[in-house]
Design brief:
The complex is a heterodimer. By secondary structure, chain A is mainly α. Chain A has a domain at 27-193 and 359-397. Chain A has helices spanning 2-14, 30-54, 61-77, 80-86, 94-97, 108-138, 141-150, 159-192, 204-229, 238-269, 274-282, 286-310, 315-341, 343-346, 367-387, and strands at residues 16-17, 353-354. In chain A, strands 1-2 form a two-stranded antiparallel ribbon. Chain B is mainly alpha-helical. Chain B has a domain at 62-98. Chain B has eleven helices and no strands. Chain B is flat. Classes of the chains: A mainly alpha, B mainly alpha. Chains A and B meet through helix 5, helix 6 and helix 8 of A and helix 2 of B.
Chain lengths: 397, 249
């Protein structure tokens, strides 16, 4: 109790203007910031992989499997922040047993399951099937059995079967893109449909979420690619890197214009909430929105990638620019999620006051748990690359 | 038949096996976990209704009290507290209504109880009677002067501030401090006894304020002047100036 009061009195010192009593303490904290961030990374990484397949981009072949595995490892963790936040994870399966069709939040389980099972796992399985069978045939002991199990004891690697795999992958990719849009557009939809909150309620929300997801996903794959391949014997393929950077650049342009559009629309419409939102952006969100999200996470990377391309800079410099830019972008998109989730709860529905978010370090909602959740996909990715190596050289012709 | 089976690619067979396994598992397991009466009326357990209904009741509502305490109910229904339910002051009375002998109720006779609603607070609505307890006839219980069931001030309040404390306080630090309320609001005497039925007037035209502030008005020299024809025209004055705290900034 004493701790609680201490916590509240600390927040109260930061409260300005008039706010309702139940608005002092935020209900959605850091975990809910992480959740859209993770699903965004998944959707982005998957869409990158799909681009490679659908448009048959040769330069990016190297990243195809890597982005699929990245998407998978982040997808496995994506629901975790929700489970931790809600408590009672043992009851979560009930949303599958008694589906509530009128609740967008309750339908998330199905969107997620569809995306995981019908799209991502299937595509990975079909793509790897031939290789797994061949690996299993030359391996011994536990590894052999893992691979056999993963291939569902399939053994057909005839010409016809491989052809079928290829066709099926194309089909799944085509279903997969709308599904990835659905997965992340859905997260935006949840926020966009909260009518009472002018910071969230906007039809642009799902679309803006989607494009920022693509930006973050591509930046993540680019970063992982650079880190992993600088250790691998083959080294970084500059053509591949340049191509990824240009995709990143184009998607960022779209994302940036969408966000600008949203901004202009809001200021022009100037609804009754505009004053308090302006105060929010100019005050409590200034650093995280104007400085980190827009300046560091958007304008600087856009500018530096553009100059790197325009002036044909030397390779090493380009690498450095891509590397730093993608880190900045990842931080910037995290900040975007933060500004949406936390920012949307900082102002009073009376439009007359602001509260404050105080992060805790320990406890389920605290910083340490969140860091753990954010790092676990990396661990999963490591294990996955051991079981299903995505490297070109182990691919069987 | 066999030829069709042969045409299906091997991987599809294996996948379908897995899918069938998952679907069958779902179909088999879900009845075990879904409560049998789920969905009978809506998206919830039907028995939840009974469970809630079977909980111990605490409140009975004020109509029942009239069966046995008719005198009090009749008095109260005519007074200011007509909308304050009996159980707000006497506490949950379900058991008492069942068996008045064994379950007795308490009456809040102390001063601290009434002040929950009547202590001065700026956020209380306009006209709500408020007092400052430490200065309002201190030490004596409120019920010595006010009947809790038909509370009336023993004498009609002389000041508007009795019920409009916030406005009075605001006005008292404003430029209009020396204007009595009645200069701008024609107030029938009965408003102080029966405020909702006899409401005072409110200024309705720009000319009203112009009576003192217009350049050609015959009023005190110190009063700041404006040109009625041009100053904030099209709007009434109190869309920009709060009349109880006028500011010219």
């Amino acid at each position: 109790m004493e701790e609680l009061i201490y916590h509240l009195t600390n927040i109260l010192k930061e409260v300005s203007g008039y706010i309702y009593p139940n608005e002092i303490e935020l209900h959605w904290g850091l975990l809910i910031v992480i959740y859209p961030y993770l699903t965004g990374l998944v959707a982005g990484a998957f869409i990158l992989a799909s681009l490679v397949k659908v448009f048959n981009v040769k330069e990016l072949q190297q990243t195809y499997r890597l982005s699929l595995l990245t998407a998978l490892s982040f997808l496995i963790i994506a629901p975790l922040p929700l489970l931790v936040h809600l408590g009672h994870p043992e009851k979560s399966f009930e949303i599958f047993l008694t589906p509530n069709k009128s609740s967008a939040m309750a339908m998330f389980g199905f969107v997620y399951a569809w995306y995981l099972m019908a799209v991502l796992l299937l595509e990975i399985w079909l793509d790897y099937r031939k290789d797994i069978i061949i690996w299993a045939s030359s391996e011994k002991g536990i590894k052999k059995w893992i691979h056999k199990l993963v291939s569902l004891f399939s053994s057909d690697i005839s010409e016809r079967a491989i052809k079928f795999d290829k066709k099926a992958i194309k089909a799944i990719t085509i279903i997969g893109i709308p599904s990835a849009f659905l997965l992340h557009g859905y997260v935006g939809f949840i926020f966009g449909s909260i009518k009472a909150n002018p910071w969230w309620s906007s039809v642009l929300m799902p679309i803006a979420f989607l494009f920022s997801a693509m930006v973050s996903g591509i930046a993540l794959v680019l970063l992982i690619y650079m880190v992993i391949y600088s250790w691998r014997p083959k080294g970084i393929n500059m053509q591949c890197l340049d191509k990824m950077a240009s995709y990143l650049f184009y998607v960022m342009i779209v994302d940036f214009s969408l966000e600008t559009l949203d901004f202009i629309h809001r200021t022009y419409e100037a609804e009754e909430s505009i004053k308090i939102l302006a105060e929010l952006v100019g005050g409590k969100l200034f650093v995280s929105l104007v400085v980190i999200q827009v300046l560091l996470g958007m304008i600087i990377p856009l500018g530096s990638i553009a100059t790197a391309k325009l002036f044909k800079m030397p390779e090493e410099l380009r690498k450095l620019i891509y590397f730093v830019s993608s880190i900045l972008i990842l931080i910037g998109i995290f900040s975007t999620r933060w500004n949406i989730v936390i920012g949307g709860q900082l102002f009073s529905k009376s439009f007359r006051g602001l509260t404050e978010y105080k992060m805790t370090i320990f406890g389920l909602e605290g910083l340490l748990v969140s860091i753990g959740i954010m790092l676990s996909p990396i661990l999963i990715l490591y294990v996955l690359t051991k079981i299903l190596p995505p490297w070109e050289e182990v691919r069987n012709p | 038949m066999l030829s069709i089976w042969k045409k299906i690619p091997e991987q599809i067979k294996r996948l379908s096996f897995l899918v069938i396994l998952i679907v069958a598992g779902y179909l088999l397991i879900s009845p075990l976990f879904i409560p049998p009466d789920f969905g009978k009326y809506g998206h919830f357990r039907a028995s939840a209704v009974e469970e809630i209904a079977s909980q111990q009741m605490n409140y009975v509502g004020h109509e029942i009290c009239a069966n046995c305490h008719e005198d009090v109910s009749v008095i109260k229904s005519k007074g200011y507290h007509k909308n304050v339910a009996c159980e707000v002051c006497h506490g949950p009375a379900f058991l008492h209504a069942e068996d008045p002998g064994s379950a007795t109720l308490e009456a809040p006779r102390g001063r601290s109880y009434c002040t929950l609603c009547h202590e001065y607070l700026p956020s209380r609505p306009t006209g709500f009677p408020q007092i400052v307890a430490i200065s309002h006839n201190p030490m004596k219980p409120c019920i010595t002067c006010h009947d809790p069931h038909k509370p009336e001030p023993p004498v009609t309040p002389k000041e508007c501030s009795a019920c409009h404390a916030t406005i009075a306080r605001t006005l008292s630090i404003s430029y209009h401090i020396y204007l009595p309320c009645t200069r701008c609001h024609e107030t029938p005497e009965k408003h102080k006894i029966n405020p909702r039925e006899f409401t005072p007037s409110k200024p309705s035209t720009r000319e009203f304020c112009g009576g003192c502030h217009s350049i050609d008005a015959k009023s005190d020299k110190g009063i700041p002047r404006i040109d009625l024809a041009t100053h904030g025209h099209r709007y009434v004055c109190w869309q920009c100036h709060y009349p109880h705290l006028p500011e010219a900034k």
